[in-house]
Structure formats: structure tokens, C-alpha cells
Design a protein that fits this description.
- The structure is a homotetramer.
- Helix content of chain A is about 85%, strand content about 0%.
- Chain A has two helices and no strands.
- Chain A has helices at about 10-45, 50-80.
- The longest helix of chain A has about 35 residues, at about 50-80.
- Chain A starts with 9 loop residues before the first helix and ends with a helix.
- Chains in contact: A-B, A-C, A-D, B-C, B-D, C-D.
- The interface of C and D includes residues 21, 23, 26 and 38 of C.
- Chain C binds a DNA duplex (16 and 16 nucleotides) through helix 2.
Chain lengths: ~80, ~80, ~80, ~80
DNA sequence: ACACAAAGTTCGCGTC
DNA sequence: GACGCGAACTTTGTGT
């Protein structure tokens, strides 16, 4: 099974690892930024839990619409099956 | 009742929400970039699962890693497993 | 750190492992039963995707109610903060 | 429109839903039991994380495990990491 | 091989 | 400050 595996071009592999780690570092940095914002909001008297809820709700809304469409499609399909 | 109490806070709250959502969008974008890199690596024949393990191993400190492995071997040995 | 760790009473450890593996086997058996039900339903002409959707929706419903109550509580709290 | 098409199927569908939900409830109960075992082990001083690793390792075949580790070492070695 | 669903892991929160 | 709880993210397995 290993015969057909990648030749492991060392430089190429290293390049992938480096680029991935770089992006993950960026991602972690942004996550820290988000954490800082929540902390700042908290220090100004906001309830972080509420804030997270608001963000979550706004994120879900589009999904909900997609879910609805999907469900509609699914039900139409179901009617097709049963008709 | 909140109409008279929070007119200023509303703008501030909106600002927090906007900034957090912006950062979360950035984070998602970077996550997509990482996914693309893994896909590219896969298409070149690399084993993505192993690649992820490599990244993960490099992230944790060698000390921690050794401690974990040693403890794991203690448990396995106690069970009579071949470590 | 390891000084205070468990003495690794071999028999006790083995007992835990056995009991956990036993329960996981039971769980896997039930999962198989569920799989069989879906297969049976499929063989009778039902769309498995729809079926899964129905199950998922019914599972979410109670959560949704809880979410709503939780959200209400959170908003009341928010008004308390801003008042 | 579906009233005339699926009167029989409805009962059958309900039966499937009920049975599936029953099995899922059983499955959840067993999952709780597993959780309890881990908690109990933890209270006795065992390292839950390691315990989970032990269970996971015993689940996968020794062959697979060795192959994975070997491939992992190939990658790490290619990167000049200490395996 | 892909996409969806399940499991496991981690993190932040509230509690005691 | 340690613990358990719950949510979010990540990873693994499965069905198409």
C-alpha cells in the first residue's frame, strides 16, 4: 500500500506544514482578538453571555432560512414519494 | 422601558457586534484557506490524516508529549498490553 | 506531578476498562439496531434522509423551547443591566 | 393532497420514528453510564484523558496502529523532527 | 471520493 | 480554585 504513496518531497512537505502553521497562527491571533473584544465589552458592563447569544442568533438566521428551504425541498420530495 | 435607558449603549453594542462578526468572518476565511491547503496536499498524494497529526504534534511541547506517552504506556502495561 | 497520581491498582483499572468497553459494545449494538431500522424503512420506500430530518427536528424542539426560555431570561437580565 | 395518498404509511412512519427514538434514548442512557464510569475513575485518581486513549487504542487493530505510527514517523523524519 | 452525521476534544462559564 | 456543565470546534466514521 505504501508503494503508491507520496514520494514525500521533503521541501514540498515542509512548505505545506509551514503554510498551514502560519495560517493557524493567524487564526489563533484573530481568536485572541475576538476574546479581547468580549473582555472589553465586559469591562464596559455588557453581559458577555448575552453578547455571545446575539452573535449566535445572527449567525443562525441565514442557516435557518437555508434549513427551511431544505426542509421544503425534502417535504416536496416526500410527497413525490408518497403520491 | 429600555428605550429611555440604553440609547447610547445601543450604538456601542452594535459596534461590538460588528467588530466581532468581522473578526469571525476573517477567522472563517482563514479556516477555509487551511482546508484548501489540506486538499491540495491530498491531491499531491499526501496523507491528510497523518499531516494533521504532524501539525498537532509540533504544536504540543516535547515534554508534554513524552509525559503523555509515558503515562499511556504505564496504563497499557498495567493492562498487559504490548506498548 | 506523577507522585500524587493513581497507584494504578491493576485489577481496578482492568475493571474500569472492561466495564467501559462493555457499555460501548452495548451502545454500538443499539447503533446497529438504529441502522437496521433505517435500512428497513428504506426498503419499504421511505426516504432515509427525510426520516433522519424528522427525528432531528423532534429532538431539537424541546431544546428550542429551552432556548427560548433561556433567551427570555437573558433579555430580562439585560434590561436589568441597562436600567 | 397527501390525505388520500399516505394514510397507511403514516402509521408505519410513526412506528419507525417511535422505535428509532426509543433506541436513541437507550443509546443516550448508555452514554451516560459511560460518562459516570469515567467520572468514578477520575475521582479515584485515574487520568481520564489517558483512559480514553487506552480504550481507543484497544479498539483499533494492532496492524493499523503500527502502520499509522510508521507513516507518522516517515513524515516527522522528513521534516527533521525527532520521532 | 464526497458529504453528512457522530464522537471526541477544548474552552469558557457558573458553582461550590 | 477546582469541578462539572454546556457550547464550539475539530476530527473520525459511514452511506451514497
Amino acid at each position: 500500500m505504501s508503494d503508491v504513496a507520496a514520494p514525500i518531497a521533503v521541501e514540498q512537505l515542509r512548505s505545506f506544514v509551514d503554510r498551514i502553521e502560519r495560517l493557524e497562527a493567524d487564526k489563533a491571533g484573530i481568536a485572541d482578538g475576538i476574546k479581547d473584544l468580549y473582555s472589553e465589552a465586559k469591562s464596559l458592563g455588557y453581559d458577555v453571555k448575552i453578547l455571545r447569544k446575539v452573535i449566535a442568533l445572527r449567525k443562525i438566521k441565514p442557516n435557518e432560512r437555508r434549513e427551511t428551504e431544505e426542509l421544503l425541498e425534502v417535504y416536496l420530495h416526500a410527497l413525490g414519494e408518497l403520491a
